[in-house]
Design brief:
The complex is a heterodimer. Chain A is 21% helix and 28% strand. Chain A is an alpha+beta fold. Chain A has seven domains: 81 residues, Ubiquitin-like (UB roll) (Roll), CATH 3.10.20.440; 195 residues, FAD/NAD(P)-binding domain, CATH 3.50.50.60; 121 residues, FAD/NAD(P)-binding domain (3-Layer(bba) Sandwich); 67 residues, Arc Repressor Mutant, subunit A (Orthogonal Bundle), CATH 1.10.10; 141 residues, Gyrase A, domain 2, CATH 3.30.1360; 92 residues, Aminomethyltransferase beta-barrel domains (Alpha-Beta Plaits, 2-Layer Sandwich); 92 residues, Aminomethyltransferase beta-barrel domains (Elongation Factor Tu (Ef-tu), domain 3), CATH 2.40.30.110. In chain A, the strands form 13 sheets. In chain A, strands 8, 9, 12, 13, 14, 15 and 28 form a seven-stranded mixed sheet that branches. A six-stranded mixed sheet of chain A has the order 41-42-43-40-34-44, sandwiched between helices. Chain A has a six-stranded antiparallel barrel with strand order 45-48-47-46-49-50. In chain A, helix 10 packs across helix 11 and helix 16 crosses helix 21. The radius of gyration of chain A is 38 Å and the shape is elongated. In chain B, strands 1, 2, 8, 9, 10, 11, 17 and 18 form an eight-stranded mixed sheet that branches. In chain B, strands 5-6-4-13-14-15-12-16 form an eight-stranded mixed sheet. Chain B has a two-stranded antiparallel ribbon with strand order 3-7. Chain B is globular and about 65 Å long. In chain B, strand 1, helix 1 and strand 2 form a beta-alpha-beta unit. The chains are: A alpha+beta, B alpha/beta. At the A-B interface, strand 6, helix 10, helix 11, strand 31 and helix 14 of A face helix 3, strand 12, helix 7, strand 16 and helix 9 of B. Chain A: This is Sarcosine oxidase subunit alpha.
Chain lengths: 938, 405
């Protein structure tokens, strides 16, 4: 085995160059190169080696440096590629300091039967399900199907296990309705058989990875039935020195020999509690590793195994234990002694294989809500009844995942699980096929469950070298200290010791921790239980979970039909909800202040235009549309004549303003309600929540039509003249087209609905067209010499008029009355949302915060929004500035504020507290411009 | 080698058997229940107290939160109780004689829209007037404090600034719970685990005891501290609480070399993250919209949270999620807690802390113990009475509800 077959792959580890073979894991390649110390333990700083051959690895954690830095992966799962650079970790990983160039993706899939694990049981389950015509997905975390067969090299149907598995998987993959996913870890089992998996697509390719292929992708799978064929992890007993490099799970050593052609050592001792270490020892011996002894804690190993060992000249010491592993930095000898206390001897060895039995991988089953029961025969927790009361899972568990000990048993069990899944999913179950043949399967002797090997005198007898959780450096002494502190729950012991909290989440140590705890408390581990299994089953990268929802795909970017025009005109954009809105349109040399003052003047003195398309628009249609709106808005909507428009306010049940907007009556049974830009979805949700949960009898449908319309607000004393020019067919006279009405018309040759609405106090129109005409309309209006303005000018104009912005001048604690809008609250309606709250003690307090205007004594001083007001000399906050602007119309700065008892304070002098500085202001009525409303009709 | 956590003491508490009666029975052995027991004993000399826990002590939200401690709340009422808590946190390690890993590394609350900025500046001003340390930071100052935050304009919702509370930070939740438990037990409080309350005995409008899976227990007073299950327990005495329970999830990464020196929260992008003492990133997700008493949420919430995390912290891309979990949060209509008396005499309620209960632990324990001991609210918790939902005197901490026109 010194020159292994296969394609050479060159990699670097801890600063040294090595060669491995294509298909090697980093762990296998390191072992092939004689590297035994791979990482450093997290708390004690001791060298650690390679303990397992799979994802359960507690020791050999590495940092990937090249192709791209990735923190903390088990060397046992990293497939080497040319140019791979990795280092052993001292407990902590390191993140890259540059952006990850890779792409990540997400796939949705549905199937009749999802089989998790492509070992013997999983392959059979998938094959049976597929044979019955089900849509099947078979997923396995390893690069190739086969599961345990990859490591044991047992023969099935006369073929080497690996080949048998590959052929079965290839057959399945060839079927139209079957998908076989390798390198795919199912890591979460959620409600209603929703499972999530991560597929690693390019890691093993290194630099050869196609740039267009997603590095990892998340599979979101909905399955009618799930077969958990997740296998079992080998475990180990606690004995002194069990953390030394050179101590390895027996099954892992067997895997290195059989799957990778790698000898993990030269001279091995085997410590076992069961028969499965015997074939491992025999395979190692066949590969040229000297087996110094098999130390079997039982008196009676399986007879056939014992015979074969004798035949090979392997010494089997029954009734013996390993009391200590010894070595400086790595294993050099093993102390072997009869368990009943006879003479101990020191056996030189560089490899100690341990097998403490096999623990079913029940993580997903437990995540799914399945309960576990302790199986005395295998000494571990296994899945309980899937149909127990309050459980009822659409799940089968097959093979060693439920404690089936033999290969032939797993093959049969898998087939049966596949057939059960078929039947449960409603398929006709085909006739049973003969099971694959397994020739060499000697009868097994019972295992013994040994958790803790006491040390011989003087050698680790304080249990500080008996490791329970190798990754967290937790020893038996730590567990005993936890129970000694009074702790009785395994969850507490976990938190006291940190056992089970590391990268491996206690895969090899969880049961051992429970068993040692139970032992210390004099309890049965079956009663004590284990800590909760939680998703993900294996670590999954943040980036994979984020998928494509990053950058500009993080949240939809919504733009209006006129967006490109705004951008071309150099308007800075403001995020308002998901929308991008033009903030202001600076001319050459203008800053924001100058631009906004100019835009304001245009609207007040001439004519200006704004893109108002982002306002939410909801069609409310049906015989009960008016009734619904009467219940939602504080004011009456049912009396609105067709052709008219009414402003309305919606409150929450607590009476606090939630949204506002106009309601247009298009027909007896058809209204169009507008909402604030950011609240459109929330308002539609609100309508639907009431309709669906409280008022299902109302015959009305609500539909978002925000994006179906483009809206141009045309504002200013000259707006009527401009509109008349653009819409020669429309009678724009004040009497024939009065305020708060709408007309259908052709504007610039485009069919439009023109509303006479004003959010500035000026004569104004909102011209609505189908959104694909939006830009044409905008350009036509602009061509008439109209000044465009953005959201900032809109804010100033409305604030001068004392119109609140919901969410800026309100914060969910403000009633319509607080805003000076008692008039919008109906006194006639029997009920509407919020009505009862208006009579509550706190809602009628005279000192509630009310919307007022503020004029700084320094007319050039801009009041920052958010600053608080106090009485001169006082420190108690009376309220805060909600909006503050420079006003072109007023020729000074001004603000809106919510002030306790504000309307009674009009004329009072207050201080805006800017830290130490006090800015004197005078309280005014909140309508500062055109309080008599003279400008509305032009 | 990495920074090791300090050892827990050699002795914590003895598992107690329930007695037939107590002066005070506290229902719920989480952080709030344990802190209440501790301050009942320490401040009020009431030690004939049992804390009943249906599972293992501090195994509910106390074991599931993201350990953020801050007091920069908007309203005077909230600032009062949270700042009281923060001041107690500042002396708690000495008081309890327990290492709590209380780390005042500061908390940043990011602003991503102009309205976020307005709300944030408002909160800073309000905090200062209330004696709570608070600063407004521009994006470049955010970057200085936490270099890994992407403050570039390229992200979907760019960082426009942040509020910063330097005295805020994190602590280690198990240590906090066990510190209170150990100290309470030392005063003679009985900590009774695996003891689920199945009924409340009410006679003539007065609570007289609790029924449990370990038998009936008479009580002079009963103090509920049942977090996500508060409405279920209160209903046993016929008290309806205005609560909705939701799952709230969180997660941790593997241990990483230090990258994140502070705590960053973003309401708009829905992520809050710190790096715990051991080195793992601790991150909280958004709340599940569905009501549930189950300690598990939907997976898309986690996916959404990862997208948000990478939006703000691109360097997290190849960190791994090691473990996710869920707690059950009880949310009131105004997103503020309920602490105080109930319509049933001698029955007290502490609930509705939503996502913010951990940081309040010592403060609420202090005030609730006072309330239970005196039969009337502590001044700092008085605004959080149950009857505010009748009077309308809400303490709305939802923040601004909407954005601009």
């Amino acid at each position: 085995m010194t020159s292994r077959p296969g394609e050479v792959v060159r990699f670097r580890f801890d600063g040294r160059d090595y060669e491995g073979r294509r298909g090697d894991t980093l762990a296998a390649a390191l072992l092939a190169n004689g590297v035994r110390r791979v990482s450093t333990s997290v708390q004690l700083g001791q060298p650690r080696g390679i303990f397992s051959a799979g994802g359960e690895e507690p020791n050999a954690l590495v940092q990937i440096e090249t192709p791209f830095p990735e923190p903390m992966l088990p060397a046992t799962t990293v497939e080497i590629c040319d140019g791979l650079v990795a280092t052993g970790l001292p407990g902590k990983g390191r993140l890259a300091d540059r952006p990850d160039p890779a792409r990540y993706d997400t796939v949705h899939a549905h199937c009749d039967v999802l089989v998790v694990g492509a070992g013997p049981a999983g392959l059979m389950a998938a094959a049976e399900a597929a044979r019955g015509g089900a849509r099947v997905i078979l997923a396995d975390e390893r690069p190739a199907p086969g599961g345990s067969l990859l490591g044991t090299a047992e023969a099935v149907d006369g073929l080497p296990g690996r080949r048998w598995a590959a052929e079965r998987a290839a057959e399945l993959d060839g079927l139209a309705d079957v998908r076989v996913l390798c390198r795919t870890t199912v890591f979460g089992h959620y409600d209603d058989n929703y499972l999530v998996a991560v597929e690693r697509r390019t890691n093993h390719l290194g630099a050869a990875a196609p740039a267009t292929t997603a590095r990892e992708r998340i599979w979101r799978i909905r399955a009618r039935r799930v077969v958990h064929a997740t296998g079992a992890h080998e475990r180990f007993p606690a004995f002194a020195g069990n953390d030394l490099p050179g101590v390895m799970l027996a099954g892992a050593a067997r895997t290195y020999v059989n799957q990778y052609g790698v000898r993990p050592g030269r001279r091995a001792v085997v410590l076992t509690t069961n028969d499965t270490a015997y074939p491992a020892a025999l395979d190692l011996a066949a590969a040229g590793i000297e087996i110094a002894a098999i130390v079997d804690v039982r008196q009676a190993p399986g007879e056939e195994w014992a015979r074969r060992c004798a035949e090979r000249g392997i010494d089997v010491l029954t009734g013996h234990v390993v009391t200590a592993a010894r070595g400086a930095g790595e294993l050099s000898s093993v102390v072997v002694a009869p368990e009943d206390g006879g003479q101990a001897r020191d056996v030189p060895a560089d490899l100690l294989l341990v097998s403490g039995g096999w623990t079913p991988v029940v993580h997903l089953f437990s995540q799914a809500g399945g309960t576990l029961r302790f199986d005395e025969e295998i000494g571990a927790f296994v899945p309980g009844d899937t149909q127990a009361r309050d459980v009822r899972l659409a799940v089968e568990v097959a093979g060693s995942a439920r404690g089936v000990p033999t290969l032939s048993g797993c093959l049969r069990d898998g087939a049966e699980a596949g057939r059960r899944a078929l039947a449960a999913a409603g398929f006709a179950v085909p006739d049973q096929a003969p099971p694959p043949a397994v020739e060499d399967e000697p009868a097994a002797a019972p295992a013994r469950h040994l958790w803790l090997v006491p040390a011989a005198d003087g050698d680790g007898d304080d249990y500080r070298e008996h490791f329970v959780d190798l990754q967290r450096d937790v020893t038996v002494a730590d567990v005993l200290r936890a129970t000694g502190a009074g702790l009785r729950s395994v969850e507490h012991v976990k938190r006291y010791t940190t056992a089970g909290t590391a990268h491996d989440q206690g895969r090899t140590s969880g049961l051992l921790t429970s068993a040692i705890t139970a032992h210390a408390l004099g309890l049965d581990v079956a009663d004590l239980g284990v800590t909760t299994f939680r998703a993900p089953y294996a670590p999954v990268s943040f980036a994979a979970l984020a998928g494509r929802d990053r950058g500009h795909l993080h949240d939809p970017v919504r733009v209006t039909a006129m967006h490109d025009w705004h951008v071309a005109r150099g308007a800075p954009l403001e995020n308002v909800g998901q929308w991008k809105r033009p903030w202001y349109y600076p001319l050459d040399g203008e800053d924001m202040t100058a631009a906004v003052l100019r835009e304001c003047r245009a609207a007040r003195e001439d004519v200006a235009m704004m893109d108002a398309s982002t306002l939410g628009k909801i069609d409310v249609i049906g015989p009960d549309a008016a009734e619904l709106l009467d219940r939602l808005y504080t004011n009456m909507m049912s009396t609105l004549p067709v052709g008219s428009i009414r402003y309305g306010v919606m409150c929450r049940p607590d009476g606090m303003v939630f949204d506002d907007g106009t309601v247009i009556r298009l027909a007896e049974d058809h209204f169009l309600a507008t909402t604030t830009t950011g609240n459109a979805a929330a308002v539609l949700d609100w309508m639907e929540e009431w309709l669906q949960t409280e008022w299902p009898s109302l015959r009305v449908h609500c539909t978002s039509v925000t994006e179906q319309w483009a809206t141009v607000a045309l504002v200013g004393p000259r707006s009527r003249e401009v509109l008349a020019g653009l819409a020669p067919g429309l009678d724009v006279g004040n009497a024939s087209f009065p305020f708060m009405t709408w007309r259908d018309a052709e504007v610039a040759g485009i069919p439009a609905r023109v509303c006479r609405i004003s959010f500035s106090g000026e004569l104004a129109y909102e011209i609505n067209v189908r959104s694909w005409y939006g830009l044409a309309l905008w350009e036509a209006v602009n061509a008439a010499g109209v000044t465009p303005y953005g959201t900032e000018t809109m804010h100033v104009l409305r604030a001068e008029k004392g119109y609140p912005i919901i969410g800026q001048d309100t914060d969910g604690t403000v009633t319509p009355q607080d805003l000076g809008m008692a008039w919008v609250v109906s006194k006639k309606k029997a009920d509407f949302i919020g009505k009862r709250s208006f009579s509550r003690a706190d809602t009628v307090r005279p000192d509630r915060k009310q919307l007022v205007g503020l004029l700084p004594e320094d007319t050039g001083r801009l009041l920052p929004e958010g600053v608080h007001l106090v009485e001169p000399g006082g420190t108690r906050a009376l309220g805060h500035v909600t909006s503050g602007y420079r006003s072109a119309a007023l020729g000074r700065t001004f603000a809106l504020a919510l002030i306790s008892g504000g309307r009674e304070r009009v004329g009072e002098r207050l201080h805006a507290a800017m830290g130490e500085e006090m800015i004197p202001v005078t309280v005014t009525h909140h309508v500062l411009y055109d309080p008599e409303g003279a400008r509305r009709d032009g | 080698m990495t920074e090791n956590l300090p050892d827990h003491p050699d002795w914590l508490w003895a598992a107690a058997e329930p007695k037939r009666s107590y002066d005070v029975v506290i229902v719920g052995g989480g952080g709030h229940g344990l802190a209440t027991a501790y301050y009942l004993a320490k401040n009020h000399g009431i030690t004939n107290v049992a804390v009943l826990e249906r599972g293992w002590l501090a195994g509910g939200n106390m074991a599931r939160n993201t350990t953020i401690i801050r007091s920069n709340y908007l309203w005077d009422e909230s600032a009062g109780i949270y700042e009281h808590a923060l001041k107690l946190w500042e002396g708690l390690e000495d008081d309890l004689g327990y290492p709590l890993l209380f780390s005042q590394r500061g908390v940043l609350n990011l602003a991503h829209s102009l309205q976020d900025v307005r709300d944030s500046v408002r909160r800073v001003h309000a905090n200062r007037l209330n004696g709570v340390d608070a600063e407004w930071l521009e994006p470049e100052q955010v970057k200085e404090l936490c270099p890994i935050v992407d403050v570039s304009p390229d992200v979907r919702y760019p960082v426009l600034g942040a509020t910063y509370q330097p005295r805020a930070g994190i602590a280690k939740h198990d240590y906090v719970a066990w510190g209170f438990a150990r100290a309470a037990a030392a005063y003679g409080v009985d900590l009774i685990e695996n003891c689920e309350v199945t009924g409340l005995d009410v006679r003539d409008g007065r609570v007289t005891g609790v029924r449990t899976t370990r038998g009936p227990i008479a009580a002079g007073k009963v103090a509920l501290c049942a977090a996500g299950h508060s409405s279920v327990v209160a209903a046993m005495a016929g008290v309806a609480l205005p609560l909705q329970s939701h799952p709230l999830q969180a997660l941790v990464s593997e241990l990483l070399e230090p990258v994140h020196p502070t705590v960053v929260m973003s309401n708009a992008v829905h992520v809050y993250v710190s790096q715990a003492h051991k080195g793992e990133l601790v991150m909280g997700a958004g709340i599940d919209a569905a009501n549930s008493y189950r300690q598990r949420g939907a997976f898309h919430i986690i996916e959404r949270q990862m997208a948000a995390a990478l939006e703000l912290f691109p360097v997290f891309a190849r960190a791994h999620v090691l473990r996710t979990w869920g707690g059950v949060v009880d949310v009131t209509p105004d997103a503020s807690p309920i602490v105080g008396l109930t319509p049933v005499d001698d029955l007290y309620v502490n609930c509705g802390w939503g996502t913010g209960g951990f940081k309040a632990t010592p403060g609420v324990g202090w005030c609730y113990a006072h309330t239970v001991a005196h039969g009337e609210p502590h001044p700092l918790s008085a605004p959080f009475s149950l009857d505010r939902f009748t009077t309308g005197a809400l303490v709305d901490e939802h923040g601004a509800a909407a954005v601009a026109h």
